Automatic annotation (TrEMBL):
Gene3D superfamilies tied to this protein: Ribonuclease Z/Hydroxyacylglutathione hydrolase-like
SUPFAM superfamilies linked: Metallo-hydrolase/oxidoreductase
Protein name as it appears in the record: Metallo-beta-lactamase domain-containing protein
Native species: Spirosoma linguale (strain ATCC 33905 / DSM 74 / LMG 10896 / Claus 1)
Coiled-coil intervals, chain numbering: none
Domain of life: Bacteria
InterPro entries assigned: Competence_DNA_uptake, RibonucZ/Hydroxyglut_hydro
Length: 419
């Protein structure tokens, strides 16, 4: 008993002395047994690089709005981080190359596209840069030009027809061109993300290490098919399309891929752009967070749903997940909404401590959430979760995103994993 207590003190003492040494210097490279989750900030949408304890790599999303909104056909004028001289996809690739410098030739073993929006996959609108396969380089297609991708999981492969075909969607058309060319010429494997499974994403570098470093990734949801918590079973949250008018079909955000990663006692949740706060007059099934909450329990770290937009992070989800650490992948003036921050910090929803980190608050967002700003641990930067071998504890590290030195700005923790 005493020995156990002594070792806890020791972990935290060593933890604090390590932290002081890191600030102002480049992030130390990953080593075997660690789990790194990098929330890369380009100011252009989501991009999360994971390095699993055996060295298997995964990139979830590669947003690139390219300062142009295909939805409204208006420029958004959001600066690219670290600079406008390259597109977001190339910055992501360069970040990945640096983070994976322990490998000779960096490879992404997996990529996931949570759903088909520009801030998660990249838009070809107004982009002239093209790859060898003739497709436009933007977001994931640009990352793939610089870093080989072995397997890509999305919600549409192979027919891209749910809830309706993407025949007029230039983004999905360009992406499918990329997939087809990469499958033919580079050996890329494309698969549909399959809800309920926990063996679609596994260690591929050193599978034997799974016994020593147990990481499981559970596929929770895609296209409204949600894991029930029982074996690999799923149930459909959305009505049969036959009972709906085309205008009532599920929207892109609610079709997002959600997954949960566990490493020993450590748990991380990522839900893409799922929503849980009903717009006036919309049917109850538009809230996908509440059913999701019913099959989940407490987590250590949550990547905020839908960038913390007003329709996300409802009370049921927060009461179930009770995250110790929140990461907000912010890129627009509406990220995060004041109401959402009110819920995040609400001790009526849960009483435990929590720390909130944002990747890229815009000046307009800072004005809107002014009263909450002192409570945020970060307002800009790459946010890295570094989980120690075995998963018992983790730190949050904020890196400078103004250049490519990857300098540690601040470090928080060590936090003890929950369960
Ligand atoms: Zn989004």
């Amino acid at each position: 008993m005493q020995l156990a207590r002594l070792s806890v003190y020791l972990i935290f003492f060593v933890g604090f002395s390590t932290q002081a040494q890191w600030v102002g210097k480049p992030l130390p490279v990953w080593h075997t047994g660690q789990l790194d989750i990098h929330h890369i900030n380009t100011g252009q949408g989501n991009a999360t690089l994971m390095v699993l304890p055996d060295g298997t790599t995964l990139l979830a999303d590669a947003g690139a709005i390219n300062s142009h909104d295909w939805r409204t056909n208006k420029p958004r004028n959001i600066p690219v981080k670290p600079g406008n001289d390259r597109q977001a996809g190339e910055w992501i690739a360069r970040y990945v190359r640096n983070a994976l410098r322990f490998q000779g030739n960096p490879i992404l073993d997996y990529a996931i596209i949570t759903h088909f929006h520009d801030d998660h996959m990249g838009t070809p609108a107004h982009v002239t840069k093209r790859g060898k396969g003739g497709y436009v380089l933007a977001g994931i297609t640009e990352v793939g030009e610089y870093i080989p991708i072995r397997k890509i999981l999305d919600r549409g492969w192979p027919d891209y027809s749910y809830p309706r075909p993407f025949d007029n969607d230039s983004m999905v058309i360009n992406y499918r061109r990329f997939l087809n060319w990469q499958v033919q010429h580079k050996g890329l494997i494309a698969e549909r993300f399959a809800s309920g499974l926990k063996n679609q994403i596994t260690f591929v570098k050193q599978p034997d290490l799974h016994r020593k470093y147990p990481v499981d990734i559970r596929n929770l949801m895609v296209n409204g098919a949600m894991w029930t918590g029982d074996g690999d079973k799923t149930r459909l949250l959305f009505p049969d399309l036959k009972t709906l008018q085309a205008t009532e079909y599920p929207n892109e955000n609610m079709c997002s891929i959600a997954f949960q990663l566990r490493y020993g006692k450590f748990t991380y949740f990522s839900g893409g752009d799922i929503q849980g706060v009903l717009q006036f007059g919309s049917p109850a099934w538009h809230d996908v967070e509440t059913p999701m909450a019913s099959v989940l329990g407490p987590v250590d770290v949550q990547l905020l749903d839908h960038h913390g937009y007003a329709d996300s992070e409802n009370g049921a989800l927060l009461a179930s997940l009770q995250p110790r650490v929140f990461v907000i992948p912010a890129w627009a003036s509406s990220h995060p909404a004041p109401d959402v921050l009110g819920r995040l910090f609400s001790e009526e929803i849960y009483s435990d401590k929590r720390d909130v980190f944002a990747t890229n608050l815009l000046p307009e967002a800072k004005t809107a959430i002014h009263d909450f700003l002192p409570r945020l641990k970060s307002q800009s930067g790459h946010v890295i979760i570094r989980v120690e071998p075995g998963g018992k504890s983790y730190r949050v590290i904020v890196l400078d995103d103004n250049d490519e030195t990857y300098t540690v700005k601040a470090i928080y923790g060590p936090y003890k994993s929950k369960s």
